[in-house]
Automatic annotation (TrEMBL):
InterPro entries: DUF222, HNH_nuc. Residues 227-252 are annotated as: Disordered. SMART domains: HNHc. It comes from the Bacteria. Residues 347-399 form the HNH nuclease domain. This is DUF222 domain-containing protein.
Length: 422
């Protein structure tokens, strides 16, 4: 009897064999023939079953150090990733989860019996690992029980938020000090990991990948949202929650594009005096172009950074203090290193704000505080920097004003109509 019993495979191996056989039988069935209610029931059951199977797999992985040792692998997760041709990052994640479940048996138990799925288990483990190392084991267990119970109600993201405040529920006496230490640790980690990387895409665009502390990103996004989504009404009097429209097509601009317009406007409007000295002068970008190019608005201009822009874009930037135009003669000698009188003075700018109140492009109500001063008669062609020749445009319409694809028509009421040239 003892011999027969010892020859039986382990229950986990029996489970794996039974699952393989069941899946083999079910794989030939077409779920399209199920009723709507049956599909709904099957989807939920298979999802929960997948979490339970993952719990068994991770539990086995947690005690498989001998497998890694036998194969000379860094960990059982690394060995498994190699055997299944998975990414090495997947192997690290599996091992990290397995170790977490081993440290917190209650979470592993909830995953195996179907009360948690993997995403919820990760959220709970992350919260438990952030608790103080010297926390009373009974308090830690109470926190685990509460988070596992709340996983039935909250999605993983909300569960992580709750996890940060879990001590307020299970141990209010130590919660404040833990919250302070947790925030300080997160802030230090964010400062170490923040970075900006820039890639030239080669088609006039560059891509920036920005990782910033959340508090900094929140302030930045608040500024961009204020610039990109001013409250205003459409032509029929109804709220235009979608924001600006392309003057050529009338199509609503997407939110990411409006944020990009807002960022460009914010960068160009930043006063040079607010920037540190760089190369002996306040950080300034110079554009170099010959006199004929500046007057005609056709051709190419070179930036002091080494990049190139169209002459039309250079003329638009010359309306603002964001760029110093260096006009070159036939011998490439500077004829004019900018002229301060090309820029509207602060009193003139205020007078325009009082007069125009908002962007003067027809139908655009971007507030004057977010607009740029534009010379209706180009400054490069002798236009005067006076109120009669100036008008306020938002950054988007200022770009359009300098785009040779558009004609501008000033109406009797002072608004400007944009018409795409045929």
């Amino acid at each position: 009897m003892t011999e027969a019993t010892s020859s039986l495979p382990h229950p986990l191996l029996q489970c794996a064999s039974a699952l393989e056989a069941a899946v083999d039988r079910a794989a030939v069935s077409d779920p399209a023939y199920l009723s709507t209610d049956e599909k709904a029931d099957l989807l939920v059951r298979l999802t929960r079953l997948g979490g339970r199977i993952e719990g068994l797999r991770l539990g086995t992985l947690a005690v498989s150090g001998d497998v890694a040792e036998q194969a000379g692998a860094r960990s059982a997760g690394a060995w498994l990733a190699g055997e299944t041709h998975a990414d090495t990052s997947a192997g690290r994640r599996w091992q990290r989860l397995a170790d977490g479940l081993d440290r917190h048996p209650l979470v592993g138990e909830a995953l195996r019996d179907g009360r948690l799925d993997v995403a919820h288990a990760e959220a709970v483990l992350s919260s438990l690992d952030d608790l103080p190392a010297d926390l009373d084991p009974e308090v830690r267990e109470a926190a685990a029980r509460r988070l596992v119970a709340d996983a039935v109600v909250f999605e993983p993201r909300r569960l992580r938020v709750l996890g940060r405040r879990i001590l307020e529920l299970v141990a209010p006496g130590v919660a404040d000090d833990h919250e302070r230490r947790l925030l300080e640790r997160q802030e230090r980690r964010a400062r170490r990991r923040m970075r900006i990387t820039v890639h030239d895409l080669g088609d006039g665009l560059s891509r920036a990948v920005v990782d910033l502390p959340t508090s900094v990103m929140d302030r930045w996004m608040a500024q961009l949202q204020a610039l990109s989504s001013p409250r205003r009404e459409s032509s029929d009097g109804s709220p235009d929650a979608g924001g600006r429209r392309d003057p050529a097509t009338g199509e609503r601009l997407s939110y990411p594009r409006r944020l990009a317009h807002a960022f460009c406007a914010m960068l160009e409007a930043r006063p040079g005096a607010a920037l540190p000295q760089h190369g002996g002068d306040a950080t300034t970008l110079m554009v170099m172009l010959d006199l004929d190019t500046l007057v005609a608005g056709l051709g190419v201009a070179e930036l002091s950074s080494g990049s190139s822009i169209s002459a039309g874009e250079a003329r638009r930037l010359a309306c603002n203090a964001a760029l110093v135009p260096v006009v070159l003669g036939g011998d490439s000698q500077p004829l004019d290193l900018g002229r301060s009188r090309r820029l509207y003075s602060p009193p003139q700018r205020k007078a325009m704000a009082v007069r125009d109140r908002h962007c003067r492009a027809l139908g655009c109500d971007v507030p004057a505080a977010w607009c740029e001063a534009h010379h209706l008669h180009p400054w490069s062609r002798g236009g005067l920097t006076d109120l009669a020749d100036g008008v306020l445009f938002c950054s988007f319409h200022h770009h359009c004003a300098h785009d040779p694809a558009y004609d501008l028509v000033r109406r009797a009421d002072g608004d400007i109509e944009f018409h795409r040239r045929t």
